[in-house]
Specification:
Blueprint (H helix, E strand, L loop, with lengths): L6 E12 L2 H7 L1 H21 L2 E7 L2 E6 L2 H20 L9 E13 L2 E3 L1 H12 L5 E4 H7 L6 E10 L2 E9 L18 H11 L1 H13 L13 E5 L3 E3 L8 H13 L5 E3 L2 H9 L4 H8 L3 E10 L2 E10 L4 E11 L3 H22 L1 H8 L5 H16 L2 H17 L5 H16 L6 H18 L4 H14 L3 H14 L4 H13 L3 H14 L7 H12 L3 H8 L10 H14 L2 H13 L4 H8 L6
Parallel strand pairs: 4-6, 9-11, 9-12, 10-12
Antiparallel strand pairs: 1-3, 1-4, 2-3, 4-5, 6-8, 7-8, 12-13, 13-14
Helix pairs in contact: 1-2, 2-3, 6-7, 8-11, 11-12, 13-14, 14-15, 15-16, 15-17, 16-17, 17-18, 17-19, 18-19, 19-20, 20-21, 21-22, 21-23, 23-24
Organism: marine metagenome
Protein name: Guanylate cyclase domain-containing protein
GO biological process, one term: cAMP biosynthetic process
C-alpha cells in the first residue's frame, strides 16, 4: 500500500497559555477554569475578527493559525490590552496573565491539525515571552516591521529546549523593555572578519555590528518615496441635465479605482481630490503639500446624446502636460469609454512613466487585458520586495496568471524562474533539488521558445551563476546575448549584477547606469541600490552623493544605501546622523548578516 504523501505549507502560528495556570488551579480550580473560559471567549472573538483558526488546545494552551502575520500580531496585542483592562477592573475576581508567541514557518498538515518546526518554534517563543507580552520570530518581524507602528525589542538569538531562533518582543508598553542573554549569532569565518576590517577599519566594523544589534528602530518623517504619487482632480462636467451632473464624480471615482490597482504608484483618495478642488489649490501647492508627482485633470462635455471626454496628465515637477487623451462618443457608452480612457492613462503610468517603454511595451504585448498586465507588474513589484510575505503574495499572483495563460510562453517561464530562484535564495524551498532541476529546465525552455528574448538570457545568466554552477564564462556569454537581443532596464540591471559577481565592477557600474537611464521611475530604488553598492566598492563616494542627493530622505530608500550613508557619516565623526541612517536601514530590513553580505559583495539580490 502506497504511503500517503506528507502535505506541507507555510503558516503563521499563534501560541498562547496562562502564566501560573497550574498553581492557580491548585488554589481554586473552579474559579480558575471559570475565568479562563471567559478569557478564552475574548480570544476566540478576536480570532474571528482577524481571521484566525484554532487548530489545537490542551488545558490552558491554545494554538491558532493565521494567513497573515500582520493580523496575528494585531490580534495578539489587542488581546493583551484587553486582558490588562480586565485585570485592572475592580469587578475581576481572578487576574489572568497570558504569554503569546508568534512564528511563521513550515508546518505539516494533518486534517485540521498542524505539526512541525513552525508550530514548535511558536511554542518556544510563547515560553520566552513575558507575562502580558508578545514574542515574535525573525520571520514574523521581517513581515511586519515596515507595516506597523509598534516598537520592537531585538532579543537576538535564543535557545529554548534545543531550539535556536532569533526573537523580538513587541513593546506594548514600557514594562516590556528588557534585556535577554544572547549567544553570538555571527558565524563569519576569520578571513571574512579580516576582509571586513580591511574595508571598514577594525573599530568601524565592530561599532556598526553592535549598533545593528543594540539600537532600536525609529520612524522618520518623510514625504519622499520611490513610488510616484498621483492625484485625480474631479472631472468637470458641462452640458448635462441636473439629474446627470454626478457623471463627473462617477468618472473621477472610477479612474481612482482603476489606477489604484497598480501597486507601484500611490493614488490619493477621492476625499483629497475633492478637498483640493474645493479649496482651489494651485499646482505648486498640490505638489508641495501632498507630494504629488502627476496630476490628472479631465472634463466631459455633452451636447444632446453626443459627448467628449478629455483627460491630461500634468508632470508637476516639470510643470508641463505630458499626456493628453480625447474621446468622442455616444452618451450611452459613457461607462465603456471612461474605463477605456482610464486604462489608457494607467498604461501610460505603467510604461512610459513607470517601467520604461522598451520593456513595458514588450511585456504588455503578452497579455489579453490591462488587468492581466497590471497583475503581472504587481507580481514583479512583490517579488522585488524580497520578504517572505511578499514572496508568498507573488507566488499567488503568478499561479493566478498561469491559470489564465496555461499555454507555454517565454515570459511565463522567465517569471517562474525568478520565483523559484527567490524561493531557494530565501531558504524557504521545501524541495531544493526539485526546484533546482525545474530552474534548469525553465531557463533553457524560455530561450528555446524565444531565442531573441533578452529577459530569458539575463535570467539564465544570473540564475545559472548563483545556483546552477555555470560559472562566469557562461554567465557573461548570456549577458552579451541579452544585450544583443535588445537591452531593457531589467536586463541591464541583472547584467550589472553578473559583471559585479564576476569581478568587473566598472562594467557593472556602466550597465546599471544605463538601466537607470531607461526606467523613468526606479520603484523601490532597486536599480539605484545596486549602483550605490558598486560605486561604494570602487571608492566613488562623491558619485554616490551626486546620485542620491535629497532622495536620501525617502522613507523607502534602499536599506543598503542607508547603511552605506551611515558608515560614511560615522567616518566623518557624525555619530548621531550615522545612527539615524542605520536605524532607518534597520526599519527597511537591514541586519548584521546583510552588512557582511554587502561588504563582502555576496548579496544575491
Amino acid at each position: 500500500m502506497a504511503t500517503k504523501e506528507i502535505e506541507r505549507k507555510i503558516a503563521v502560528i499563534f501560541a498562547t497559555d496562562v502564566v501560573g495556570y497550574s498553581k492557580s488551579v491548585e488554589v481554586n480550580e473552579e474559579q480558575t477554569i471559570k475565568n479562563f473560559r471567559a478569557c478564552k471567549k475574548i480570544l476566540e472573538d478576536l480570532f474571528k475578527e482577524h481571521d484566525g483558526r484554532i487548530f489545537n488546545t490542551a488545558g490552558d494552551s491554545v494554538l491558532a493559525e493565521f494567513s497573515s502575520a500582520v493580523s496575528a500580531v494585531i490580534c495578539a496585542t489587542e488581546f493583551q490590552k484587553l486582558m490588562k483592562e480586565r485585570n485592572e477592573s475592580e469587578t475581576t475576581d481572578l487576574k489572568m496573565e497570558f504569554r503569546i508567541g508568534i512564528n511563521m514557518g513550515d508546518v505539516v498538515v494533518e486534517g485540521d491539525n498542524l505539526y512541525g518546526d513552525g508550530v514548535n518554534i511558536a511554542a518556544r517563543l510563547e515560553a520566552l515571552a513575558q507575562p502580558n507580552g508578545v514574542c515574535l520570530s525573525r520571520s514574523v518581524h521581517e513581515f511586519i516591521n515596515k507595516k506597523m507602528d509598534f516598537l520592537f525589542n531585538d532579543l537576538g538569538e535564543q535557545t529554548v529546549k534545543d531550539n535556536k531562533f532569533h526573537a523580538f518582543d513587541v513593546v506594548i508598553d514600557d514594562s516590556h523593555k528588557r534585556t535577554v542573554k544572547t549567544k553570538s549569532k555571527s558565524k563569519t569565518p576569520l578571513v571574512a572578519v579580516i576582509a571586513l576590517a580591511l574595508i571598514f577599519g577594525l573599530f568601524g566594523i565592530y561599532y556598526f555590528a553592535n549598533i545593528i544589534e543594540e539600537k532600536p528602530s525609529i520612524e522618520t518623517a518623510s514625504v519622499t518615496s520611490s513610488k510616484s504619487s498621483i492625484l485625480v482632480a474631479p472631472i468637470k462636467a458641462s452640458g448635462l441635465p441636473a439629474d446627470q451632473e454626478a457623471f463627473g464624480t462617477g468618472i473621477t471615482e472610477s479612474m481612482i479605482s482603476i489606477l489604484s490597482q497598480y501597486k507601484a504608484i500611490r493614488v490619493l483618495s477621492s476625499n483629497t481630490s475633492f478637498h483640493v478642488a474645493k479649496t482651489e489649490m494651485l499646482d505648486a501647492e498640490i505638489r508641495d503639500q501632498y507630494g504629488v508627482d502627476f496630476l490628472i485633470r479631465g472634463s466631459i462635455q455633452v451636447m444632446g446624446n453626443n459627448a467628449r471626454l478629455n483627460l491630461e496628465i500634468t508632470d508637476l515637477k516639470l510643470e508641463e502636460v505630458s499626456v493628453s487623451k480625447k474621446r468622442d462618443f455616444n452618451l450611452n457608452d459613457i461607462f465603456k469609454v471612461q474605463d477605456d480612457l482610464s486604462n489608457e492613462i494607467l498604461s501610460e503610468l505603467q510604461i512610459n512613466m513607470g517601467v520604461g517603454s522598451r520593456q513595458g511595451k514588450r511585456w504588455a504585448s503578452n497579455w489579453k487585458s490591462i488587468e492581466d498586465f497590471t497583475k503581472f507588474l504587481n507580481w514583479r513589484n512583490e517579488l522585488r520586495t524580497f520578504t517572505k510575505e511578499s514572496h508568498l503574495n507573488s507566488q499567488r499572483m503568478l499561479d493566478e496568471l498561469k491559470d489564465l495563460y496555461p499555454e507555454e510562453s517565454d515570459l511565463m517561464y522567465v517569471a517562474e524562474a525568478w520565483q523559484t530562484w527567490q524561493r531557494i535564495v530565501m531558504q524557504i524551498s521545501t524541495d531544493k533539488e526539485k526546484d533546482l532541476e525545474r530552474l534548469n529546465f525553465v531557463t533553457n525552455k524560455a530561450i528555446e521558445l524565444n531565442p531573441e528574448s533578452a529577459d530569458a538570457y539575463a535570467a539564465r545568466a544570473l540564475i545559472g551563476l548563483t545556483l546552477l554552477n555555470t560559472g562566469c564564462e557562461a554567465a557573461l556569454t548570456n549577458v552579451i546575448k541579452s544585450e544583443e537581443s535588445g537591452s531593457t532596464a531589467d536586463t541591464l540591471q541583472i547584467g550589472g549584477r553578473v559583471y559585479a559577481r564576476c569581478g568587473d565592477l566598472n562594467k557593472a557600474i556602466r550597465s546599471t547606469r544605463n538601466a537607470l537611464k531607461l526606467v523613468p521611475n526606479d520603484t523601490g530604488w532597486f536599480i539605484t541600490g545596486a549602483l550605490v553598492n558598486n560605486l561604494y566598492l570602487t571608492g566613488q563616494i562623491e558619485e554616490i552623493y551626486k546620485l542620491i542627493g535629497k532622495n536620501i530622505e525617502a522613507k523607502d530608500m534602499d536599506q543598503n544605501v542607508l547603511a552605506i550613508y551611515a558608515f560614511l557619516e560615522h567616518k566623518k565623526g557624525n555619530k548621531e546622523l550615522a545612527e539615524e541612517y542605520l536605524s532607518r536601514a534597520k526599519n527597511n530590513g537591514f541586519s548584521r548578516v546583510r552588512l557582511e553580505r554587502l561588504i563582502l559583495n555576496k548579496e544575491l539580490r
